[in-house]
Amino acid sequence: MPRADFLTGLVLLAVSALLIGEGLTLPGAGGLIMKGGEPGRVPLFLGLVIAAMAIVLVVRAILQNGHRLRGIEGFDNERKRAFGRALAVAAGGTLYVGLLGRNFSGADLDYALLTFGFIFTFIVIGEWKLAPEIAGRRWQAFDRRAPATAAWIAEKLSFVTRARAPHVWLCITAAFQAAFLAIVVAYVFEKQFFVQLP
Amino acid sequence: MLAILQDIVDYLIQTAGYVVLAFGKFNSLDVIAYVIGGTLLGIVIGVLPGLTATMGLALLTTLTYKLDPNAALLSLMCLYVGAIYGGSRTAILLNIPGTPANAATTLDGYPLARMGRAGPAMGTATTGSFLGTIIGMVFLATIAPKLADYALEFQTHEFLWLAIFGVLIAGQLTAMEDPIKGWIAGFLGLAVAMIGQEGLYMTDRFTFGFTEMQGGIGLIPAMVGAFGFSEVIAVMYNRRAEIVRAKVKLLDVIPDPREITRYWRTIGRSGVIGTIIGIIPGVGEDIGAWVSYAAARRASKEKEKFGKGSVEGLMAAETGNNAAAPGAVIPVLTLGIPGSAPAAVVLAAMVLHGVRPGPMIMIESPTFVYEVVVMFFFAAIAMLVLGILLTPLLLKVLSIPRERLMPAVFVLCVIGAYAIQQRMFDVWVMVVFGIIGFVLREMKYPMAPLVLGIVLGDIFDKSFRRSWVIHDGDFLFYFGRPISVILMLMCVATIVMSIGPCRRYIGPRIQAAMSASIGLVTGFARAHFVLIVMLVASLRGGKASERTAESPAGAISAYFGILADTILAFVRAYYGLLLAPFVELARLATGTNGSISPSADRSDPGPARYGEDR
User: Fold this and answer.
1) Residue B345 has pLDDT above 90, yes or no
2) Around B21, how many Cα atoms within 13 Å sit in the side-chain half-sphere?
3) Can you tell me the distance from the alpha carbon of B268 to that of B280, in angstroms, rounded to the nearest whole number?
């Protein structure tokens, strides 16, 4: 934590420099603004307060050897995987938002289609490794609840090998959920709340 | 004395009348649908780990913004109460708090579940949550109108110090281990609120040439990001929760009325503590639960059971967090300042629906406070009924895998942020706040002060500059108004008390002084009671219990004896608090030994508590 505090302290010092800089450079509107009411006064004050706290954070981190950035330990495989998952979610989410409302080759990307793609990809990537365990359990539960439908699906997908079956079943359920959510969200917001979807 | 009592009774009767009248506003059948829908959604959101009341409220605000204001706010209040309660299920069964407000519930809820008493534990949580909401609701009905009247006295100076105090106390209480991180979060929130055109001269600040930024950062997109998207990332970052397959019968969950009679003191105390913590700006339900739990443990006759499956501990935590929900709405209605992060969304939703919360509420919309009271009442009833009836369904909700749930939550975050103003800028604000929120949370920076800072930013900015303009930069004017001085001293005290050595020195003395103050009041009451008993006894020729009083003179002597003891304890405690530091300084300066200061003696165990015999 001292290392993280040290880095955060530096970032906060930069933020406070921005606040102080803006506070000092904001115009006084050619004498129209009464003394004390300048727009830069509060950012200046906030910049100074944040700078003071950032200095406390940095000094405290230095006293705990937080400034020695080399040799970051403690990142075991589990932590790296967790970090990778978080990064993938943040990147995937940002990509989805970035694609919303974009125009490709003269055609707008449809909101429902893009949402379907996002949810489907999220579920499939997230559950791919666990598919043999999870999908098997889900199939058994489905077979118990709707044996006729299960038998019909099994017959239609008889060409799928036993090894691939869990992944196929994962894709089917993911597609079903993604389609359902995308259609419901698009319908409710567009038709019920009159929102012009991006 | 009788006149004061008469006034209080009159006020309570008048309040009850207004509340009854407010029920008339909710006389359509639609109300039932909104109450059931909102509460059920809230309980489900609370049950699912990773989904919080704040996120649920932020998303539902966007879903209800086309509704009639009363219907929309009713749904939101029901979701609020339902979510705080729903988290107890997860805390009991999985040892993971469903919402941060249920963290204290895990301490005794999970051990009870492991003992095979998951059902009764859920029943206790239901009782506690219901009674907590009702206690908070009663305080909301009685305190809010008076507080709104009092808030009319507030001017720019008071709002300035109130904003600073709110950020400081929220930072202090939500980051107990490292208050500076809480303060940084709060001041960053204030800084975020500086983005856009300022309210006095319409000058652009931090817009960097982007026209979209002139309108500032919207509270709802920022909150959806900080509590929604960041939660999605955090849930995927953390380890997968092990889901416990618990078999709970419906009959087990039905609350036991004997618990209410057995733990009525704990329920009452936790309800009051929860409400008070709720009123403190930005602090919220989680701290309400922790403080209630700590107070219950201190006062309990079964201290050793706490943390090992104490029904009393579970009751205290659940009463405290649910009482904080109506408590947090009190400052929203009367000052326009949220008592917690979910209350900040409620504040934004009220503004969105044309209600102007703040000191003028009792003048502009005098019945609105009582309508909110009725909303909390409906929410409490629905929570009680649905919490019991839908137990099997709620257990199934717990087994939804995160990979299936989180993409749906993210899609709702995106459309929720977009729907209010229908512009992509708000969606990007949500994404940025989500990523920043995740990083800050991982570095132990609390989110509640950040949100409070964003809410208070405008008030702070205008009050800061107006007060300087009005008094031409004369700082001494702040000392001319009593409320301003009290708030200023509270700010200083919050900072001083967070400094380790100061806290260690002053803390016990403040505690002693407070107990001596309570002792002074109870001592006076006891002395008068004893005097009357002994006078009656001596006149009848019998013996009194406290001291032998065979004559009226003896009774009066005993009376003054008790008074003297009480006053002496009071003076001794305040001497420790107010004078001892100066005596200590003088001792250090002069190099003398303990002869002039009682605390200079190293064997001195510290300030005396009231009633402690030394």
Assistant:
1) no
2) 12
3) 19
3-state secondary structure B217-285: CCHHHHHHHHHHHHHHHHHHHCCCCCCCCCCCCHHHHCCCHHHHHHCHHHHHHHHHHHHHHHHCCCCCH
Mind giving me the DSSP string for B364-391? HSTTHHHHHHHHHHHHHHHHHHHHHHTH
CB contacts, 8 Å: B404 with chain A = 123, 177
CA distance B341 to B447: 8
On whether any CB of chain A is under 8 Å from the CB of B414, the answer is: yes
How far is the C-alpha of B204 from the C-alpha of B213, rounded, in Å? 9
The runs of H, that is alpha helices, within B283-340 are 285-299, 311-335
CA B43, chain centre distance (Å): 20
Task: Examine the pLDDT at B568 and tell me if it is beyond 90.
Answer: no
Residue B364, Cβ neighbours under 10 Å: how many?
12
Nearest one of B123, B39, B48 to B314, comparing CA atoms = B123
Which pLDDT score, from 0 to 100, does residue A28 have?
59
Number of neighbours of residue A129 by Cβ within 10 angstroms: 9
Of the segments B58-62, B138-142, B474-478, which one has the largest average pLDDT value? B138-142
Task: Judge whether A48 and A20 are in contact, CB under 8 Å.
Answer: yes
| Predicted local confidence at residue B593, as pLDDT | 47
Q: What is the four-CA torsion angle of A105, A108, A109, A113, rounded to 10 degrees? A: -120
Q: Which residues of B touch A189 (CB under 8 A)?
A: 415, 419
Residue that is written with structure tokens 């032998």 in the block: B548
Q: B380, exposed or middle or buried, with CB in 10 Å at 0-12, 13-18, 19+?
A: buried
* Contact map slice: B 552-611 vs A, CB within 8 A: none
Model pLDDT, residue B532: 75
Residue B365 CB: number of other CB atoms within 10 A? 16
